[in-house]
Design goal:
heterodimer; A: 344 residues; alpha/beta; 2 domains; four-stranded antiparallel β-sheet; elongated; B: 274 residues; mainly alpha; two-stranded antiparallel ribbon; 2 strands; 3% strand
Chain lengths: 344, 274
Amino acid sequence: MINSISMNYIQIKNLSKSYFDIDALTDFSIDIEAGILFGILGPNGAGKSTLIKILATLVEPDSGEVFINNINLIKNPRKIRELIGYVAQDIALDKILSGRELLDFQSDLYHMKKKEKYERIETLINQLEMNDWIDRKCGTYSGGMKRRIDLAAGLLHLPQLLILDEPTVGLDIESRNIIWQLLKDLKNEGMTIILSSHYLDEIDKLADSLVIIDDGKVIAEGKPALLKNKLGGDRITLKVREFSTPEESQKICEILSSIDGISQIVINKAQGYSINFVVEKEKDLLTKLKVELAFSKFEIFSLAQSQPSLDDVYLQATGKTLLDAEISMTGKRDLKKESKQSMR
Amino acid sequence: MELKQYNLNFLYQETFALTKRLFIQLQRRPSTLLAGILQPIIWLFLFGALFSKAPQGFLPGVDSYGNFLGAGLIVFTAFSGALNSGLPLMFDREFGFLNRLLVAPLASRLSIVLSSFFYITILSFVQSIVIMIVSYILGYGWPDFYGLGIVFMTLILLVLFVTSISLCLAFVLPGHIELIALIFVINLPLLFSSTALAPISFMPNWLGWLASLNPLTFAIEPIRIAYTQTMNLELVALHAPYGDLSCKSCISILFSLTVFSLIIIRPLLNRKLN
């Protein structure tokens, strides 16, 4: 299915895009290898959708360059469109058409031959388990059905590169599992897949490599396991009070800094100035920590120990968890305005 | 050359698919088609009846008011349909369906515009033919073969002209509410300030000027000639305050307006679609 492709199948160089006063992407650069599932992780409003829309040729960047399979996206958008399949965050189906009619329509937009398109449509109907409802009007579909038909539309022409913008948001478990399995199968067949998500487990389970975005910038990039391993040992979340003061947290940070084997200390303001840090494995540092805190007249309110996750990678870079970033963005975004801005 | 043929086949395939989609929508939601036919028929009955007892010779060159009104309503039907042609595109923009088209490697994004033109032209023709048949049944006449050609040519020009404006508005305006509001504002005033319902000689001077500059008038008058006389392009169709205009002149003005509107909207469509 896939042609011979260079190692860096996608090269994104110094990409910037702003909408009036909002910088959606700033000097953004990453390379993506061929045949992998590449995750784009970040909270809502981080710039994921803007990046995806640029890759799908729907939005033109203010500056920077993008090459897909050595084709300049800005200069040759039509050639890029032949290579890509795009599954948008907001599912846009024609409610009047049946699922089969929609796929038939879509295949004509990709200039597929009659025999080829009917075979392909049947294959996808079976693959995505759509037989029972494919001839019903799209307006009657549930969220999961809509997502599956949308995904099928993106895959009709066997694209080299599949771009998915938060494809499992709000989906039932059955639909999500079907989509996850399909993505794994497609990757195994050699398709390059870009998947944006703000679900940590999704990216952690599916992605071979990922970029974490915050505020339109790359904050971490690499294989999930490597990024987590970079954090070192176990992750500890410490609270000496349910809601500490900044001064108190600062004092604790100083105590922690003095203990050999504790690193990457971060104050999490959104979680009541709790302290996050990494302890080296195979050292009994927690006993020492308790002694030091007691010496400084601090009592432990709570202490949680966990394996490092991608959320910890995000926390390490930004000082907040993904969930906190999501919450802080809620209310700040004017979704109506953003929708108008993205309308052609 | 081979490449051109290749692209032409693709253009045909995608334009056909886009047009087919619009007709499937129409088939499953035929209310637009029915309303577009019913409204002018109701007008034809009501207005025809309103002036049925008007004295003989009340309108120059026609037997009855219905005979005069037919041309106006045919044009109005085509005009209304074309004015609404931007709505499906506006809904596609608003609901994100347009992005599905823009992400596809279309041979030319002109196919999006072409499909709207084809759809509205065929729809307007169907509606107009129904109005013409009803007019004929009511005894308001039927154009000769040459006249029929002029009727359809005039309608095509009008539909192209108005559709291009409507598509342009569909890209410029922020949403369908604004587009519908504008259609409301434009539709009836343009009808009443044309010669659809009354000749210029019945109008006050200022309205006569307005009517003789109204694009609808340039479509109505040649069709009226086709209905009331043996068609001849040299016949005077419009007694405008600035001078008499023949059928040929009216059609030429309409043609110029259509070409002008297509030239004007091209940069906007290029910017929005590329």
